[in-house]
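User:
I would dearly like some help making sense of a protein record. Take your time, and here it is.
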Amino acid sequence: MRIRYNFISSLLTLSLLSTSTLAAELMVYSSRNASYIKPLFNAYALETGVAVNYLVAPALTLISRIESETKSTDGNVKPADLMIAAGAESFWIASEKGLLAPLESSTLSENVPAHLTSPKRDWFGFASRARTIVYNPATVKASELSSYSDLATPKWKGKLCLLTAQSAYTQAFVAMLAKHEGGEKTAQVIRGWVDNLAVAPFAEDMQVLEAINQGRCDVGIVNSYYFIRFKRQVPKTKLTLFWADQKGMGTHVNISGAAVIANAPNKTQAIDFLEWLTTKEPQVTYAKLSMEYPANPDVYPAREVARLGKFTVDNTNLSAIGQHLSNAQQLMKDAGYQ
């Protein structure tokens, strides 16, 4: 039986709190919003007595910091134990730099599907989000929709809204499209999207949803949890999700994931935290906070997410995103997708 301590440790920005009174602690670098992850850290600390300190920053910033710490000869440098981030592409970059520790864990094998797990087993998705089509049913019938590629056809001229090509969401999505369709077909699709834009690409998915709701465009592509957030903000909206590519590659998904750092000073405890993160209660907690899908197939999604309905997922291993990322970026640049 684990001893339970009523002690929580947290980190704001770069300021570390002293936890010398505790027997153990973890340092987590995260690109996820603190409001999503802090409750998890609190729960783990209560259950185990292990304080969880954390630093929130953009994923690429965290990877650079980890790389610097790995190379440092300064004995006072205290490396991170884990990295949490949104998007398999971030983990692929860190993995290619040799910054992540491969793990053999029966718990992770049981709780995380293979397509959400690195082939090298050095990162694991603990939740996923779908990126799919949203439309205004006042101007579009569901029967008119089918695939991501179909949105590049002339019938959607002046009717499409998209997120900017600078977004990691867009880049990961196009990278997976390139995996399935090949470079030439993907280039054609991107050019078609650009030709069909009603307005310039937006900086955020919420802006895409607002534009469709306002009638500035009829259809777009967004992450599933942003659709839920928008419906909370605009309860009377008629906007509807459509699960894309159900007769093709399946709907694109990406992860919120975690990895143990290769030179983690508290590796055993870090593995324990990562395994714990994929068990029922943490999965339920994170799913409710983020409106993402639990990775653990035995855990049901939150009610608002479940109401979106079932769909066929593209279960291609997400490492393909990293493998095709640079190609996707170049294809979008060549097509004038800003």
Notes: Confidence is low (pLDDT under 50) at residues 1-23. The two ends are 55 Å apart (CA to CA). The chain has eleven helices and nine strands.
